[in-house]
Amino acid sequence: FEYVHLSGEKTPFLIDARDQGGISRYINHSEEGNLEPKLATIGFVTHVLLLTKKSIQKGEQLCYDYGPAYWAHRPGPIPLGT
User: Fold this and answer.
1) Is the C-alpha dihedral spanning 14, 18, 20, 21 positive or negative?
2) What CA–CA distances, in Å, run from 79 to 11, 38, 62, 63?
3) DSSP one-letter code for 25
4) Which residue has better confidence, 19 or 7?
5) How many Å separate Cα 15 from the centre of its chain?
6) CB-based contact 34:60 (threshold 8 Å)
7) Cα–Cα distance between 29 and 65 in angstroms, integer?
8) 32 vs 23: CA distance, rounded Å
9) Which value, in Å, is the radius of gyration of the alpha carbons in the chain?
10) What percent of the chain has pLDDT over 70?
């Protein structure tokens, strides 16, 4: 997920849990994911919220679009079914 200022300007900051992170590091990439990242600033600390775009069934994979800046530094995603 690439951070974007409220003004819409991109920043050099990315979320990348390749080497460490909490349970959210297991949320996968999909261009049509069921989660949508939003930013919320509370007490001068910015948080990333992952909001559902639709009802999610038990056992369904959680996904969101990591964005082009993430893939600029990694090999592209592997298509499902390969």
Assistant:
1) positive
2) 28, 26, 16, 14
3) G
4) 19
5) 7
6) yes
7) 5
8) 21
9) 14
10) 66
Residues 50 and 27 sit within 8 Å (Cβ to Cβ): yes
| Calpha distance 62→52 (Å, rounded) | 9
Instruction: Determine the 3-state secondary structure of 45 from DSSP.
Output: strand
Whole-number Å distance between alpha carbons of 39 and 10 = 13
Pairing of strands 28-29, 63-64: parallel
> CB under 8 Å to 4, separation ≥6 — which residues?
10, 11, 39
CA-CA distances (angstroms) from residue 46 to 28, 29, 65, 73?
A: 22, 22, 20, 24
For 20-29, 59-68, 70-79, which range has the lowest pLDDT when averaged over its residues?
70-79
71, two tokens: 């893939």
pTM of the model: 0.61
